[in-house]
């Protein structure tokens, strides 16, 4: 294990250095030490000055030093610490307190991570959809815990994208008269991103018959009362369209669904995933992306990654072209076992990968040159699956009161279809099509 090299550090800095080396944070944050150390055969991924993740070819982990005795964590602090208040608390109590927290029960960890709802809300892009007082009253309910998770995921990803782009997100709150609403964050025509959308929705009401039919077709046995099926659905969804064709498009979605049946019992399930759609293949990018997801999955079950990777390849498949949408990732739906707590913890691990699996790739290709022909090729990808097959788009369009702008924010600003376009054999475009037509294992 490689040590962290720091110069002129005082006791406070040493405490933070130790904190980065502990295998898991007491505040449920991503482990910087294992994150950097995981790439032995690839370029190392490190947190560089300016608060950016990037690939490097060094054997030591690097951290920017803002001033003597002080380490700069940048704007990805959600993955390194639970916020300034949490870091202060750890430094005050000392490492022994941190080690004791590691030995605490799962219940106490949940309380520590999820207890102070009002304080956590301060870091969000907007106040939550549900009133904060209601969330505090129902803080142990899964619907409240999931809403806090998707709000935190939205904020972490938006802050990371703003850091690399230099722009800012427009934040729109919207409401649905049938119940609930959402928060759409969109950055359009920025320096790096043509369009970046990160949407949170929390809706409730009664399922329409069309939506109920879709669920029954997936094997759900739904018993309503007087033709009504009360439901609650929430999730965070993001699609990022970069300007540079050498920076891939990324998509992620994590959601929770709950239905109350006629006898008052509830059915619930989680769904989601993260996948990458490059325009040109980069083997190192693919390995980094999939390895990050695999490590999150492996914390919970050794079969999750291979099963959900295969599910992703099968789901994001454009049948009329015989191609996958991209190089995949993970995808799962209707996940309701072994129990609610275990599945929620798995979803939480997946949600915390969205920055570290994507931002290193963005930073790596920021200054890549590209041609008009490569931009044309970029504009022929991605759109068709969303418009024809995507289950979330179909459900949203079938739900009364849904906000169309939020459903279709996944589309790029520009797209094109060239008649009978088949790349010349041996070109980078032909290489990309070969991968899309024959999905492969990346790690």
UniProtKB/TrEMBL annotation:
<dbReference type="GO" id="GO:0006782">
    <property type="term" value="P:protoporphyrinogen IX biosynthetic process"/>
</dbReference>
<keyword id="KW-0627">Porphyrin biosynthesis</keyword>
<dbReference type="GO" id="GO:0005737">
    <property type="term" value="C:cytoplasm"/>
</dbReference>
<keyword id="KW-0560">Oxidoreductase</keyword>
<dbReference type="InterPro" id="IPR036406">
    <property type="entry name" value="Coprogen_oxidase_aer_sf"/>
</dbReference>
<dbReference type="InterPro" id="IPR018375">
    <property type="entry name" value="Coprogen_oxidase_CS"/>
</dbReference>
<comment type="subunit">
    <text>Homodimer.</text>
</comment>
<comment type="similarity">
    <text>Belongs to the aerobic coproporphyrinogen-III oxidase family.</text>
</comment>
<dbReference type="Pfam" id="PF01218">
    <property type="entry name" value="Coprogen_oxidas"/>
</dbReference>
<dbReference type="InterPro" id="IPR001260">
    <property type="entry name" value="Coprogen_oxidase_aer"/>
</dbReference>
<protein>
    <recommendedName>
        <fullName>Oxygen-dependent coproporphyrinogen-III oxidase, mitochondrial</fullName>
        <ecNumber>1.3.3.3</ecNumber>
    </recommendedName>
</protein>
<dbReference type="GO" id="GO:0004109">
    <property type="term" value="F:coproporphyrinogen oxidase activity"/>
</dbReference>
<keyword id="KW-0350">Heme biosynthesis</keyword>
<comment type="pathway">
    <text>Porphyrin-containing compound metabolism; protoporphyrin-IX biosynthesis; protoporphyrinogen-IX from coproporphyrinogen-III (O2 route): step 1/1.</text>
</comment>
